[in-house]
């Protein structure tokens, strides 16, 4: 999530929502607002459900394109945008980002563990790929959360996280050792990947997730 981009998008939508209430503008602002809601709170959040329900109730009373429906819908959408602006003003976007990050990575780790229950080599291999993806994504999101610019090489990310004191003590050596696992798993070197290592990578990644994104 690019918070600065979200702030710019929010400002543009709020300005657009102040214009004349016509059906085309309402649809444009509505779709833009849904995009923001998905980025900040995830799909089917309570805010999205509340907005959807209110708009559906209006549509049952009047035709969606009538002047009163459009004006009322725009008022509802503006209210949602203003509530998002309140989150921005309160400095809540960072915590929202962390919560969403935690949910996404937690789901990925759960999926990897579920797949690992398949005792075949195929189950082990798929679980290894998911574990490698979760490990890399966690490190990159950690770097982004402390303002580290993009690095192509994951080893460089580990180095910077050490310098920023995000990874401490034994965590540094462990993360560095898992770089090899990540490469072997993502390059399908299955003979060099075993189940205990998959479980170990998942445990390490989950510990980082709990510490930094919960």
Task: Write up what this structure looks like.
Helix 1 runs antiparallel to helix 2 (23-41), helix 5 packs antiparallel against helix 6 (121-145) and helix 6 (121-145) runs parallel beside helix 9. The chain has helices at 3-17, 23-41, 46-61, 67-89, 93-116, 121-145, 154-163, 170-186, 195-213. It has 214 residues and is mostly helical. The relative contact order is 0.09. It starts with a helix and ends with a helix. The model has no long low-confidence stretch (mean pLDDT 84). It has nine helices and no strands. Helices cover 79% and strands 0% of the residues.
Short structural summary:
The protein is mainly α and 214 residues long. The chain has helices spanning 3-17, 23-41, 46-61, 67-89, 93-116, 121-145, 154-163, 170-186, 195-213.
Shape summary: elongated
Structural class: mainly alpha
Task: Give average pLDDT, whole number.
Answer: 84
Low-confidence stretches: none
- CA radius of gyration: 22 Å
Largest sheet: none
């Amino acid at each position: 999530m690019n918070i600065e981009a979200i702030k710019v998008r929010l400002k543009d939508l709020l300005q657009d929502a102040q214009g004349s209430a016509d059906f085309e503008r309402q649809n444009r602002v509505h779709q833009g607002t849904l995009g923001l809601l998905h980025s900040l709170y995830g799909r089917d959040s309570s805010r999205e459900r509340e907005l959807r329900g209110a708009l559906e109730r209006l549509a049952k009373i009047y035709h969606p394109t009538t002047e009163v429906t459009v004006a009322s819908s725009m008022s509802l959408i503006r209210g949602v945008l203003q509530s998002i602006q309140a989150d921005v003003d309160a400095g809540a976007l960072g915590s929202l980002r962390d919560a969403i990050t935690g949910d996404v990575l937690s789901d990925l780790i759960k999926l990897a563990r579920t797949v690992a229950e398949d005792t075949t080599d195929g189950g082990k291999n798929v679980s290894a790929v998911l574990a490698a993806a979760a490990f890399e994504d966690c490190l990159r999101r950690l770097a982004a959360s402390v303002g580290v610019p993009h690095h192509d090489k994951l080893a460089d990310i580990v180095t910077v996280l050490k310098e920023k004191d995000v990874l401490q003590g034994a965590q540094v050596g462990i993360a560095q050792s898992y770089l090899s696992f990540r490469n072997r798993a993502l390059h399908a070197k299955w003979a060099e990947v075993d189940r205990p290592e998959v479980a170990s990578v998942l445990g390490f990644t989950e510990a980082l997730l709990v510490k930094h994104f919960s």
